[in-house]
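Subject: Sanity check before I submit

Could someone independently write out the structure tokens for this chain? I want to compare against mine line by line before I put it in a report. The sequence has 384 residues.
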Amino acid sequence: MDFTFSEEHLMIRDMVREFVDKEVRPLAAKMDQEKWFPAPLVKRAAELGLMGLQFPEEYGGAGAGETGYCLMLEEICRASASLGVVMGAHQSIGCGPIYLDGTKAQKDKYLVPLAKGEKLAAFALTEPGAGSDAANIATTAVKKGDRWVVNGSKLWVSNGSEADVVIVFAVTDKALRAHGGTTAFIVEKTFPGFKVGKVDDKMGIRGSHSCELFFEDMEVPHENVLGEVGKGFVTAMKTLDRGRLSLGAGAVGAAKECLDLALRHASQRVQFGEPINTKQAVQFMLADMAAEIYQMESIVYRTAWMCDSGQKFSRESALVKLVCSESSSRVVDTALQVHGGMGYMTECAIERMYRDARINRIFEGTNEIQRLVVAADLVKKGRY
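---
Independent answer below. Compare away.
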């Protein structure tokens, strides 16, 4: 068993870390306070080859695989969960379906410019009546000649207001629905009938813009059907497996940053005549944070290796999302406690990271859904 990263992966990590420290970190507070969409940072990430890092070079990527991609998101999320969500929504769940199920023509037309960062992608599955119950989507697509007419709406679409290309899921057979009656479509924002609704006002990840999308008799060419007609739910679930894994990587980065901030504060904050890092109560908190991070990091990169080596990883991805989202919440809460009253102030990065961390237990499938996924797999197999 070899737990070392390749030289290429280490180079990617170092390059992204430099980008984060010099260009992302100084703007992290601005993204949050002003709800500022970081378009200049996205452009810079594209120049560095980060917007399609995991995909093969033939499709505009860098061929770094899921492991390299997770390393990138870990470093990005040390400084800004907002930018991490923008890049993750683009690459994991926006570009991912095209890479997994797209035709050669679709990859050439859409994935190449997306992976190069020339265009931005989004993923539209959730609706007002279909969140955890993703199979209950109401958006419909009806075949008329060589086109599909789409009607409906989507909710909380990350990158939706900024994206050039959106993966949209619609019911094409109401009798079958998720079992052969849902289809994925590649939609361009310029298609007539595509409308952007209000941008959401969120508690955290405020630099990542999510919004409502509306489709009013929107015509989509048949060649923009992604995968097979009726197999859209399969595409969505495969895509979310990867999205949950990279979410875990971002949580690792944020947790490491929280521990570093807590260590720094504990070495500088003096109480009862000495730094608080000499107090056993604080030392125990630091140790608990390190224990959480060690397990998070271990399962993320083990699962990334499974993905890159072509193994099935649906259950493992659900476990990554479940464990890392809950562990990161405990880490940031403990880090805030180490900071005391200062951690509660808006000028402290911990306050922003505390708010940012809460969404991780909700999006990409709530943690309750992850427990159902894991339990169903265990029951089916009858063993671990």
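---
OP: Matches mine. For the report I'm noting this point. The chain has a mean pLDDT of 97.
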